[in-house]
Amino acid sequence: MLMNSGRQVFRGGFAALLYVGLIWLALAYVPNLKLWGRAPGAAYAPLNVEDVYCAQPRLLDRELNALRPQRPGVVDLYLSGSAATLPRTCS
Questions:
Q1: For the chain, percent of residues with pLDDT exceeding 70
Q2: First-to-last CA distance in the chain?
Q3: pTM to 2 decimal places
Q4: Confidence at residue 4, expressed as pLDDT on a 0 to 100 scale
Q5: 3-state secondary structure 42-59
Q6: CA distance 88 to 7
């Protein structure tokens, strides 16, 4: 076992340098992308959360009315997801 320890140290050091080198290359050459947030130079209109919340029943009705009628012999599968919120009043 002692005879191979030098080779093991060399292989371990080489693997560590290779790992650090690959990480350095990835950080140096991959552009700095923000996955969340505003893109540089993009202009967004302000979002009124209350208007979006109050529009949900109308939008849901529109999408439900757009569904095609059931087709004989074909299983139609739809998903309707929802989440609980505090009650709000919409005018």
A1: 77
A2: 80
A3: 0.40
A4: 65
A5: CCCCCCCHHHHHHHHHHH
A6: 70
